[in-house]
Amino acid sequence: MIELDNRTSLIINNSFLNSIAILFSNKEIELIIVDKDEMQEINKQFRDIDNSTDVLSFAFEDMPNAPLGSIIISSWHVQTKAKELGHTSDDEIALLFIHGLLHLLGYDHEIDNTKMREKEKELIKKFKLPNSLIIRTQGK
User: Fold this and answer.
1) Where would I find the H helices in the chain?
2) Closest to 116 in 3D by CA, of 91, 88, 85, 137
3) Residue 26 and residue 89: Cα distance in Å, rounded?
4) DSSP 114
5) Whole-angstrom Cα distance, residue 93 to residue 96?
6) I need a surface site. Which of 20, 22, 73, 94 has the fewest CB within 10 A?
7) Are 41 and 62 in contact (CB under 8 A)?
8) What is d(CA 89, CA 80) in angstroms, rounded to the nearest whole number?
9) 3-state SS assignment for residue 59
10) One pLDDT digit (tens) per residue for the chain, 140 residues
11) Contact 97, 31 (CB under 8 A)
């Protein structure tokens, strides 16, 4: 189940995101939607990178009844990327949510020899979504 904290005016299709999340976990997932400036602050605080980014994930300790973790998505990046690529904000949110969820589940596209990319491809096809960033940049 997704616990939504939307700090922006962006409309979120929570039921669609829940249909994705339930495939992988029955644990609660905190989904926070923030603006570009807040995302930059979070990225600087937790990753020492003084720039905004599209999505961040923070896994919680694996304990009974503990949430899976938090996914933070930048509304500015959602709207910008959706417009640039010609798809909906709902699609972009879903792509970023999938990316963040896979990180919460332990996938890491920087070191996993394309396992995360393959799982993203599978989910994109299943939910009829446009290609995600990780897929768009595959092979580069």
Assistant:
1) 14-21, 36-47, 75-85, 89-104, 115-126, 133-136
2) 137
3) 25
4) T
5) 5
6) 22
7) no
8) 9
9) strand
10) 899 999 999 999 999 999 999 998 889 999 999 999 999 999 999 999 999 999 999 999 888 888 999 999 999 999 999 999 899 999 999 999 999 999 999 888 777 778 888 888 899 999 999 876 555 555 44
11) yes
Number of domains in the chain: 1
Q: Domain residues for 25?
A: 2-136
Q: What is the CATH number of the domain that holds 107?
A: 3.40.390.30
Q: Identity (one letter) of the amino acid at 37?
A: D
- 31 three-class SS: strand
Extract the tokens encoding 22. Answer: 């339930």
Separation CA 17–CA 40 (nearest Å): 24
Cβ–Cβ under 8 Å, residues 7 and 35: yes
